Amino acid sequence: CLSRCDPIERTVPYRAIRRVLRAVLGMEADLDGAGAGTALADLVSTVAPAPAPVVPLIAVPLGADVPATAASSQVATRFRRERTHQAVGDLLGASPRDRLVLVVEDVQHMDDASAELLAALLARVRPTHPWLVVLTRTDEATGLHAGRGHDPATLRLGPLAAGDATALARRLAEHIPVPAHLLPRIVERAGGSPLF
Questions:
Q1: H helices within the chain, ranges in order?
Q2: Which three-class secondary structure state does DSSP give residue 12?
């Protein structure tokens, strides 16, 4: 499952994690709130990891419309995120998946609610199930970062060597029309970045 965080969506709580969770749980990405609510109810009735009273908490990051329950309404505001993280983790843990790898790009743009939920899930499952590849292009403490309570393995990538960058540019130019005389300038301006 591949997801990319967009800086424009950074102000929408759970926006970044919604696509990932829906994919992992086998839900269609473009479901409206009512459709996501129906899919969530079906999933919970199948795997039953969490009692029905916490389904409204799981529904929030999924963007699913489900009616509140007496139990979910009684969760104090200061405990709602933690309880949501626990309920989502329980559901993911019970979901029938043999193997799963998530790749999330540009996590420096991830909204805070998504970053906190993903960090909580990482802290819970990472020691026994390394299943997430997170890509960031900055050391800033925004989005999902090591200070969120998980202990990531970090691999720092440097720029591509000039020969490798040139070879990549030539391969890309086979599919995207670029005048051959511009390739050396493009490679130079890219400074080894394959994303230029």
A1: 15-24, 33-47, 55-62, 70-73, 77-94, 112-125, 162-173, 183-190
A2: coil
DSSP 102: E
Strand partners, 104: 3, 134
Provide the 3-class DSSP secondary structure of residue 160. Answer: coil
pTM exceeds cut of 0.85: no
Q: Is residue 134 helix, strand or coil?
A: strand
Cα dihedral across residues 74, 80, 84, 87: positive or negative? negative
Compute mean pLDDT per 10 residues along the chain, 196 residues long, and list them: 82 90 89 95 77 86 94 92 91 72 80 89 66 61 62 74 90 86 90 79
